Amino acid sequence: MQLGLFLGYQTAASSPAHHLSLTQEAERLGYAVAWAAEAYGSDSPSMLAWLAGQTSRIGLGSAVMQIPARTPATTAMTAATIDTLSGGRFRLGLGVSGPQVSEGWHGVRFAHPLARTREYVSVVRMGLARQRVQFDGAHYQLPLPDGPGKALKLGFHPLRSEVPIYLAAIGPRNLRLAGEVADGWLPIFFSPEHAAAQLSAVRAGQAAAGRQGVAFDVAPSVPVVVGDDVEACAELVRGYAALYVGGMGSREQNFYHQLAVRMGFGEAAERIQELYLAGKHREAAAAVPLAFLDQTALLGPVARIADRLQAYAEAGVTTLSVIPFAPAEGAAETLRAVAAAAERAAIGG
């Protein structure tokens, strides 16, 4: 199991300089990849291209580039460009986002997300391979059939004709799709205790596509708080968990809430959502069970984190990406602590 760094978004608390210094420290420590995210603020490709010019070895991944934000051809162009600029270090993480962002920010209907993703990945792969892009799908038609468009291919020779593609997937059908069409999976709130059913869906997708035995990277992003008191460490993650389980989406359509229910935290998930949507964010955070936090984050002293890293590796994780839940000045120390825990657990760097 390799280690990665999840940078998240650029915010007032995480400046570009902070992201750069963390990425360079992760590279020095031997971390395999740094991931940048986007929602409706900073975009991930710009951050990754900037980091590419100031690093030399660490992989650079989008977690994610939003499918409704770009045509598949634009995504292929961007992936090929960053991969070439970085010397072949780019990993393309894709996701459909959610209805609020897709329809509210991008103006794209959140309809048929599985079918759209399947077609999208197909067109991206055609573009990266410098094939003439001709596609007749339900959601994408290239060229358009009733106009002057012509089938085109990527206008430069990228460093690689195949860039690893990852899907951000939560539900069983999305997981199956990841196994069918992608090279990796980007989970959130991944729990070693509940991984078997999720990975079974991935394997079913691989089998359906005849891809058994193909290398597949399971790459969750995991909050980390290092300290002597596990419960005190968990307090720093409560707000993050409550935001996703309670407020990331509507009452009727919140994928993270549904995940918590499948994990056996249904009663708590209902309470968290009720409080969060009522604007009682602190109470919602307090309602997040310690067991949920402990299963989905790395909490406590280095020795305990080493034990949990071993559990993640045994559950099938191949790249574990650290989300440092620490003040800016302590984030690099968190990376060093996890590297030490990984060495102690003998799981690789």
Quick summary:
The protein is 48% helix and 14% strand. With 349 residues, it is of the alpha/beta class. The strands form 2 sheets. Strands 1, 2, 3, 4, 5, 8, 9, 10, 11, 12 and 13 form an 11-stranded parallel beta sheet that branches.
Question: Which keywords apply here?
Answer:
single chain; 349 residues; alpha/beta; eleven-stranded parallel β-sheet; two-stranded antiparallel ribbon; oxidoreductase activity, acting on paired donors, with incorporation or reduction of molecular oxygen
Walk me through this protein's architecture:
This protein has 349 residues and is α/β, with parallel strands linked by helices. The chain folds into two domains: 2-226 and 298-345, TIM Barrel, CATH 3.20.20; 228-297, no CATH class. The chain has helices at 16-29, 44-52, 72-85, 99-104, 113-128, 172-181, 195-208, 230-247, 255-262, 266-277, 281-286, 290-296, 302-315, 328-345; strands at 2-8, 33-36, 59-62, 65-66, 90-95, 135-136, 141-142, 165-167, 184-185, 217-218, 221-226, 298-300, 319-324. The strands form two sheets. Strands 1, 2, 3, 4, 5, 8, 9, 10, 11, 12 and 13 form an eleven-stranded parallel beta sheet that branches. Strands 6-7 form a two-stranded antiparallel ribbon. Helix 2 (44-52) links the parallel strand 2 and strand 3. Helix 2 runs parallel beside helix 3 (72-85). 48% of the residues are buried. The model has no long low-confidence stretch (mean pLDDT 96).
